[in-house]
Design goal:
The protein is α+β, with helices and mostly antiparallel strands. The protein has a domain of 82 residues: Dna Ligase, domain 1 (2-Layer Sandwich). It has five helices and four strands; from the N terminus they run αβββαααβα. It is elongated.
Length: 131
C-alpha cells in the first residue's frame, strides 16, 4: 500500500470507525493532535526473546487454544512505557491476541515473532493549520 493512501485510510478509520471510541466531531478538531508511527525494518526473530525493549516493536503469530492462528502487535514504545520485560510483553501480546488459558514456556517458544522499528511523527491541529 502506498504511504499516502494508507495514511488517508487509517486516518479515516481511526477518526470514525474505531469501536473503542466515539467518532470525532468537527468541534473537537482544534483540540486534537495526530501521531503516526511508520513501521520499518521488519525482521523475523530467532525466537521470542530476540528483540530489544524500547528499540523494537513486536508482532507475534501463535495458535490459540482451539488451534486457530492469531496475531497481535505492540509498537516499540509500549513495553518500555508499561515497564515490561520481554516475557511480560509476550504474555501481554498473547492476551491481546485472545489467548485465555495458562501461558506456558512451551507456548512462548511456539510463537513466531517479527520485530520491527518505527519512526514517529506528531502534529497538533494548530501546526497543521499553519502549514
Amino acid at each position: 500500500m502506498r504511504l499516502d493512501v494508507g495514511l488517508r485510510e487509517y486516518a479515516i478509520t481511526s477518526a470514525f470507525h474505531d469501536m473503542r471510541f466515539r467518532p470525532i466531531v468537527q468541534s473537537e478538531l482544534p483540540s486534537l493532535s495526530c501521531s503516526v508511527s511508520l513501521l520499518t525494518d521488519f525482521e523475523v526473530a530467532e525466537d521470542y526473546l530476540d528483540w530489544e525493549v524500547g528499540k523494537h516493536g513486536v508482532w507475534i503469530e501463535f495458535r490459540n487454544e482451539r488451534g486457530r492462528r492469531e496475531t497481535a502487535t505492540f509498537l516499540p514504545e509500549i513495553a518500555k512505557e508499561q515497564g515490561w520485560n520481554k516475557v511480560e510483553t509476550i504474555d501481554n501480546l498473547l492476551r491481546k491476541g485472545g489467548y485465555e488459558l495458562t501461558i506456558t514456556p512451551e507456548l512462548r517458544r511456539s510463537v513466531t515473532l517479527t520485530r520491527y522499528q518505527s519512526k514517529k511523527a506528531h502534529l497538533s491541529y494548530d501546526e497543521y493549520m499553519d502549514m
